[in-house]
Design goal:
Its cofactor is Zn(2+). GO terms for molecular function: ATP binding; DNA binding; zinc ion binding. InterPro entries: ATP-cone_dom, NrdR-like_N, RNR_NrdR-like. This is Transcriptional repressor NrdR. By secondary structure, the chain is of the alpha+beta class. It folds into 2 domains: 32 residues, no CATH class; 101 residues. The strands form 2 sheets. It has a 3-stranded antiparallel beta sheet with strand order 1-2-3, with no helix packed on it. The radius of gyration is 21 Å and the shape is elongated. The protein binds zinc ion. The site of zinc ion (ZN) has 8 residues, from loops.
Length: 160
């Protein structure tokens, strides 16, 4: 990339390090023309298209704050929320898309949330799957019961 100081079209990498979560690489570069140094950071591009039409970078923090509301009063720890957001991001990235609909992000949260806490799952699903009647809750609860027969772990089947 161009040197931000003198616009020289080339630069040399003098240092390169990966962020703690492994998602970003930061590079120190030096311009061979003016010798000044600057930093660049590199992440695999993943953006979220909001209903307003604005697109913004995918953010685990936003996933967490959305899920946290549904988890109010539930025995769900911050660590579990962080892990859930990581799983959501990994699932979306592994699908290979560079941009995803905000609504689709919400739907991607459902499966890991179901495994975490069923009450929080129902609250969240009622918003993202647009439950508008008691029947919708009954259907969802019946499905959860069917997937978790003797109070065991729910089966890992995709959410329809
Ligand atoms: Zn320069």
């Amino acid at each position: 990339m161009h040197c931000p100081f003198c616009r020289h079209p080339d630069s040399r990498v003098v240092d390169s390090r990966t962020s703690d979560d492994g998602a970003t690489i930061r590079r120190r570069r030096q311009c061979p023309h003016c010798s000044r140094r600057f930093s660049t950071s590199e992440t695999a591009s993943l953006s979220v298209l909001k209903r307003s039409g604005v697109s913004e970078p995918f953010s685990r923090a936003k996933v967490i704050s959305g899920v946290r509301k549904a988890c109010q009063g539930r025995p769900v720890s911050d660590d579990q929320l962080a892990l859930l957001a990581q799983r959501v991001e990994e699932a979306i990235r592994s699908s290979g898309v560079a941009e995803i609909d905000a609504h689709q992000v919400g739907l991607s949260i459902l499966q890991p949330l179901q495994e975490l806490d069923l009450v929080a799952y129902l609250r969240f699903a009622s918003v993202y799957q647009g439950f508008d009647s008691l029947e919708d809750f009954e259907t969802a609860i019946a499905r959860l019961r069917a997937e978790a027969p003797e109070g065991g772990e729910p089966a890992a089947s995709p959410v329809v």
